[in-house]
Amino acid sequence: MTADTNDPIAVFTDFVSKKRLKMTPQRRHILDVFLTTEGHLTAEELDRKVKVANPFIGQATVYRTVKLLADSGLAKGVEFGDGVVRYELKYGQGHHDHLICERCGRNVEVVDADIEKLQEEVAARHGFVLTGHKLYLYGVCPDCRKADPLVG
Fold first, then answer.
1. Of 7, 65, 70, 86, which cross-links 30 as Cys (Cβ 3.0–4.6 Å)?
2. Which sign, positive or negative, has the C-alpha torsion 144, 93, 84, 133?
3. Which helix (H) or strand (E) holds 97?
4. Distance (Å) of CA 21 to CA 7, 50, 97, 139
5. Do the Cβ atoms of 100 and 80 come closer than 8 Å?
6. Is the dihedral of CA 38, 105, 99, 95 positive or negative?
7. How far apart are CA 38 and CA 46, in angstroms?
8. Residue 152, Cα to own-chain centre: how many angstroms?
């Protein structure tokens, strides 16, 4: 059976089946929580959210399912320079870069055609064909600058 590529639940169910695993109610709940949560989540944050509705799902089950989500292409791990891996929805999402506040950790997803074009041009000048990239821009957000006028 081939998954409906427009349905992330079908994609994950198909992926799990190909791994000879089952789509258990616990995995389905974890998937639902992940798909309905916006932004970037650590596995620990996802675990806390999962336990709100089902406190009997173990932490190890959540962590293993996060790995399956990433392996299936539904989730992508991102690091913002603080040593913590956060997961964001990858499936059905366009490429974006991140602005990250060094003070409070706030992050903003950025889509900018000019930046993308410049990256392609830089790669071409060096004889590269890009297959992917990650761009993290670090600074201090407006709220943190307001709180500390000596910054920026």
1. 65
2. negative
3. strand 97-101
4. 19, 20, 34, 43
5. yes
6. negative
7. 11
8. 29
Do 100 and 106 touch, CB atoms closer than 8 A?
yes
**Contacts of range 86-91, beta carbons closer than 8 Å, 24 or more positions apart:** 86/40, 86/41, 86/42, 87/34, 87/40, 87/41, 87/42, 87/43, 87/46, 88/39, 88/40, 88/41, 89/34, 89/35, 91/8, 91/11
Burial of residue 130 (CB within 10 Å: 0-12, 13-18, 19+) is: exposed
* Prediction pTM value: 0.72
Q: Do 50 and 30 touch, CB atoms closer than 8 A?
A: yes
Residue type, 49: K
